[in-house]
Amino acid sequence: MAVSIKSAREIELMRESCRILSEVHARLGEEIRPGISTWDIDALGEKLIRSYGCEPNFLNYNGYPASICVSVNDEVVHGIPKKEHILQEGDIVSLDAGLIYKGYHSDAARTYPVGRVSEEARELIEVTRQSFFEGIKYAKAGNHLYDISNAIDAYVSKFGYGIVRDLVGHGIGTHLHEDPQIPNFKQWRRGIKLQPGMTLAIEPMINMGSCYVEWLDDDWTVVTEDGSLSAHYENTVLITEGEPEILTLPDGVKG
């Protein structure tokens, strides 16, 4: 496994790529409401990304047909935006987005309530988000990669939710997906030792029901096998000499 260590110059480019993505996400989050189509969200996302002189890294990635993955309710990830898919009051929607700035990728995901949602749905969104922060308490040089995985699992398991196992986080840099793979569930080995300069996309995907998922016939959309709700939260993180830096949550930008 060859995990890239970013130079100071590369870190600056990653930082800017991620800062721009954080602004795109913040703007998209303001548009989440009943009555908007998932196609409209994607169109706005692509327009915003290109307005910064960047490219959407998801568009045509292995054939994916959109710039923003828009996944609703039981859709875990990789939902394909459609004009006829209109968000309804009480839905939850996950937006997974990334872009390329001067050859460097960024990647982040957020799950939003659509209007008023059930307490159960709101708790799922919040636990998924918090599990990321529980994990990155261990994203420090000298610790091991799977310390992050185990911390996410320990937190989520208290709530009885299913942690998706078929999809994991990843390294990121000049490619959208780099080594290492980062599971969100308990590992029995320690994994690689974390080093300053590593950039990681850490992304818990949590189901209200079981951990099992399946792919729809479009070969992209991943849904929960039992039809339960799913939430997704992701940031691109830099390992430093001290505390981790959440590159897609720069100061002053809400995530």
Tag the structure with descriptive keywords:
single chain, 255 residues, alpha+beta, Creatine Amidinohydrolase, 4 helices
Task: Describe it.
- The chain has 255 residues and is an alpha+beta fold.
- It has one domain (8-246): Creatine Amidinohydrolase (Alpha-Beta Complex).
- It has 4 helices and 15 strands.
- It has helices spanning 8-30, 38-51, 119-136, 145-157; strands spanning 55-56, 68-72, 75-77, 92-101, 104-113, 162-163, 169-171, 178-182, 199-202, 205-207, 213-215, 222-224, 230-232, 235-238, 245-246.
- It has a 5-stranded antiparallel β-sheet. Strands 1, 2, 4 and 5 form a 4-stranded antiparallel β-sheet that branches. A 3-stranded antiparallel β-sheet has the order 3-12-11, with no helix packed on it.
- Strand 11 and strand 12 (222-224) form a beta hairpin.
- Helix 1 runs antiparallel to helix 2 (38-51).
- The longest helix has 23 residues, at 8-30.
- The radius of gyration is 17 Å and the shape is globular.
- The protein starts with 7 loop residues before the first helix and ends in a 9-residue tail after the last strand.
Number of strands: 15
Unreliable runs: none
Helix content: 25-40%
Sheet with most strands: strand arrangement = 8-7-9-14-15
Question: How large, in whole angstroms, is the Cα Rg?
Answer: 17 Å
CATH architecture: Alpha-Beta Complex
CATH C-level label: Alpha Beta
Instruction: Name the overall outline.
Output: globular
Short description:
By secondary structure, the chain is of the alpha+beta class. Helices cover 27% and strands 24% of the residues.
